[in-house]
Amino acid sequence: MYDFALQRPQSLNEAIEALSAEGAEVLAGGQTLIPTLKNRLASPDVLVSIGGISELQGVSETDGTVSIKAGTTHGVVAATVESYPALASLAGNIGDPAVRNRGTIGGSLANNDPSACYPAAALASNASITTNKRTISASDFFMGLFETSLDEGELITQVDFPVPDAANYQKFDQPASRFALVGVFVAKYGNDVRVAVTGASEDGVFRWSEAESALASNFSSSAIDGLEVDSEGMIEDIHGSKSYRANLVKVMTKRAVAAC
User: Fold this and answer.
1) CB contact at 8 A, 257 and 219
2) What is the pLDDT of residue 1?
3) pLDDT tens track for 146-180
4) CA dist 2 to 14, 34, 36, 107, 164, Å?
5) Residues with Cβ < 8 Å from 129, sequence gap 6 or more?
6) 3 pLDDT exceeds 90?
7) Mind spelling out the 3-state secondary structure of 35-82?
8) CA distance from start to end of the chain
9) Average pLDDT for residues 176-202, to the nearest whole number?
10) Which domains does the chain have, with CATH numbers?
């Protein structure tokens, strides 16, 4: 690692002020940032740790919405969210216990790793992502690989998930990292069905619109049978080819619908 200063603000206002300094970077759970620092791929002058800010912690469930503060860990989401079982299940299967007890929902969404699980849940649920400046619809938040609509110095404070009538998340994971080779989150809100896919595309998380249309007319796994996913633009690496991932999108979607 390179040398850096560490600040531990105790309030959101203090954190925002600290992040306004040149060369400052936020440290949430550190599940991506710390390995990046160890490999000398980043060299911030100041790390602003937000783990001790109580106003960024906690889960509440009211009026058909699950509200999660940005600093809440995956483990807490898994243990406390009751009205949205698919979301709790997703959180409980991220990484391993060490990751779930340190990683945060805000950090995951802000990082927008192309194989992370939370972006699929947020996009399928059309979650509202609140920052210190504004509220952003999930549909407008994710901009590509590791890219979001967050401005410099903007900090996620809360994520609100409307609870669907039915939902399920299916992940085909890479055994060593437990990141998704392909993960599909299906959420049904009345006649509206949203299908969000992570781990598959070179452009990051996306919605499979053809599947959404088919499922809106016939919400059953058989509705997916006649569909095909274009392999162009899919990720290809040592774990799977483009066509392999394209096929997994279809397989995971069928499983998610069947499990709803």
Assistant:
1) yes
2) 66
3) 999 999 889 999 999 999 999 999 999 988 888 89
4) 25, 12, 11, 22, 46
5) 109, 122, 135, 136, 137, 138, 141, 156, 158, 159
6) no
7) HHHHCCCCCCCEEEECCCCHHHCCEEEECCEEEEECCCEHHHHHHHCC
8) 45
9) 95
10) 5-49 (3.30.43.10), 57-114+122-161 (3.30.465.10), 166-259 (3.30.390.50)
The dihedral built from the CA positions of residue 59, 62, 157 and 122, taken in this order, carries a sign that is positive
Residue type, 95: G
Q: Mean pLDDT over residues 95-123, rounded?
A: 94
Least confident range from 13-22, 60-69, 87-96: namely 13-22
Which one, of 48, 56, 47, lies nearest residue 76 by Cα? 56
What is the token pair recorded at 2?
A: 């390179």
How sure is the predictor about 57, in pLDDT bands with cuts at 50, 70 and 90?
A: very high
Q: Which of 2, 5, 95 has its CA nearest to residue 48?
A: 5
| Residues in Cβ contact with 150 at an 8 Å cutoff, skipping those fewer than 6 apart | 110, 131, 141, 156
The answer to whether the pTM exceeds 0.90 is yes
What is the mean pLDDT of the segment spanning 176-186?
91
